[in-house]
Design brief:
The protein is of the alpha+beta class. Helix content is 50%, strand content 14%. It contains 14 helices and ten strands. The protein has a four-stranded mixed beta sheet, with helices on one face. The radius of gyration is 26 Å and the shape is globular. Bound molecules: flavin-adenine dinucleotide (FAD).
């Protein structure tokens, strides 16, 4: 019987250390290090690598990975408990070596990379000597990859890539890009594309502009609009086999989605804590905000939504550990992915509301949280697509009613029950 909601004491000690380390050493960096992925920033380079060394010493580096890749092989449940602490600070995931999108890109390289690709790209990526970019979405559409047109053609032993990509996060800081391109135009839609490793300094790779999110200053943008013009890379830069891009992408996205959700639990908790602090700090009409029933409702609703989401994330993590097969947990991951933006949005919005004018100002983080909630509803596939997948998977477990009326039709069920117990009823009636 393993129906347990407790953390084992040994691991709780690690979590307590992480909590303290993130609070004391990492949270302040969010005001000092504008781009944790910018390895050319001397301030970042002075501060973050020594902290990474402490994490390594503690044996907590890259915990999403198995021991063969330098991680602890902790599994997803422990990772979830860690990530909900790391999610609170922008610089925390990279300090612990488990930051997106490098974690997912590393997974792809570990699964599909050749020994040479692993040596050149994976090893330095795992050590955060370099950072990477996943370049898939195109300006004309992201949710439907069938509309992608970026083309890679073989010219002798070289791939020649032409096309445009949109929202390629961290391209500006990356050493290499994983580019999804059409290589087999005559194949069926899901076998047309391949993944190709492109060093970012290859001639023809041009960042048209870096796009910032709604709460950022223009110069802070890190989501690149990239143009590839006659970009030539060797044939062996293919990642996986030809036409296999969707298989490769799925390897990355399963883990990526649940890791985003784990970190989101941490951000929701942060919004919730701020909301509660305000409710017990601010007075209006002679009493604390927290004494007003409508404020209490906001707090109660937020806690229920936050804890329900957290349990869904933990259960999904547990199922990933149990089955070790992302296909078997697709339903759970789609549910988590679809639930994530709403709980984050709703709790952050209530926290903003309770803070009044201060809440909407730039002096509090709520507008950034709200935009980030939409980020969670878009990156790795829009919410609508995940809800549709979830519904499709759930419906596939159900059969049509055998007759005209549903199996829950009360008169039909009553008739069946009466027919089943007819003898007994007759006997009892006869004895009255
Ligand atoms: C912060 C951030 C970082 C990102 N980083 C990366 C990255 O590193 N690399 C990368 O390749 N991409 C990245 N993306 C892009 C992301 O994958 C796309 O935004 C996403 O796939 C949606 O594509 P789109 O933005 O073109 O929206 P569209 O495809 O134009 O969709 C717009 C909207 O239409 C609706 N919609 C779409 N499809 C359906 C449907 N089937 N049913 C019902 N409604 C639907 C949804 O509301 C959706 O939001 C990032 C996005 C964000 C916001």
């Amino acid at each position: 019987m393993t129906w347990d909601f407790e953390t084992d004491p040994d691991f709780q000690r690690e979590l307590d250390w992480i909590e303290m380390f993130v609070r004391d050493e990492i949270e302040p960096l969010d005001f000092i290090v504008p781009h944790p992925y910018d390895l050319t920033d001397p301030v970042r380079q002075r501060i973050i690598p020594p902290l990474q060394a402490k994490v390594r010493e503690r044996g907590l580096w890259a915990c999403h990975l198995g021991p063969e890749l330098g991680g602890q092989g902790y599994g997803q449940v422990k990772l979830a408990l860690m990530n909900e602490i790391l999610g609170r600070a922008r610089c925390a995931p990279i300090t612990f070596g488990c930051q997106a999108p490098d974690s997912g890109n590393g997974e792809i390289l570990a699964h599909f990379g050749t020994p040479e690709q692993k040596e050149r790209y994976l090893r330095p990526l795992l050590d955060n000597e370099i950072v990477s970019c996943f370049s898939m979405t195109e300006p004309q559409g992201g949710a439907d990859p069938k509309v992608f047109t970026t083309r890679a053609e073989l010219d002798g032993d070289m791939w020649v890539i032409n096309g445009e990509k949109w929202f390629s996060s961290n391209a500006r800081y990356s050493t290499f890009l994983i580019v999804m391109a059409v290589t087999e135009p005559d194949n069926p839609p899901y076998q047309k594309m391949s993944m190709i490793l492109v060093p970012t300094d290859t001639p023809g790779v041009e960042i048209i502009r870096n796009i910032g999110l709604g709460y950022q200053a223009d110069e802070d943008g890190s989501h690149a609009y990239v143009r590839y013009t006659d970009v030539r890379v060797p044939r062996e830069n293919l990642l996986g086999t030809r036409g296999q891009a969707f298989v490769v992408a799925q390897t990355r996205l399963g883990g990526g989605r649940i890791h985003h959700a784990m970190r989101t639990v941490g951000m929701v908790q942060r919004a919730f804590d701020m909301m509660c602090e305000r409710a017990v700090s601010r007075e209006t009409q002679g009493e604390m905000l927290g004494r007003k029933q409508m404020v209490q409702q906001m707090i109660a609703d937020s806690w229920i939504e936050m804890e329900s989401f957290r349990l869904l994330v933990m259960r999904t993590a547990w199922r990933i550990d149990k089955y070790k097969d992302y296909k078997r947990v697709r339903t759970d991951i789609s549910a988590v992915k679809a639930a994530m933006p709403k709980v984050f949005h709703d709790v952050a919005a209530r926290a903003l509301q309770i803070h009044g004018s201060l809440g909407v100002s730039k002096e509090m983080p709520f507008s950034a949280m709200l935009i980030e909630s939409f980020h969670m509803g878009l990156a790795d596939g829009p919410t609508e697509v995940h809800k549709a997948t979830l519904a499709r998977l759930l419906l596939s477990e159900h059969r049509p009613a055998p007759g005209l009326f549903p199996t829950g039709h009360l008169p039909t069920r009553r008739d069946a029950a009466i027919a089943r117990y007819a003898d007994l009823i007759e006997h009892e009636v006869a004895n009255l």
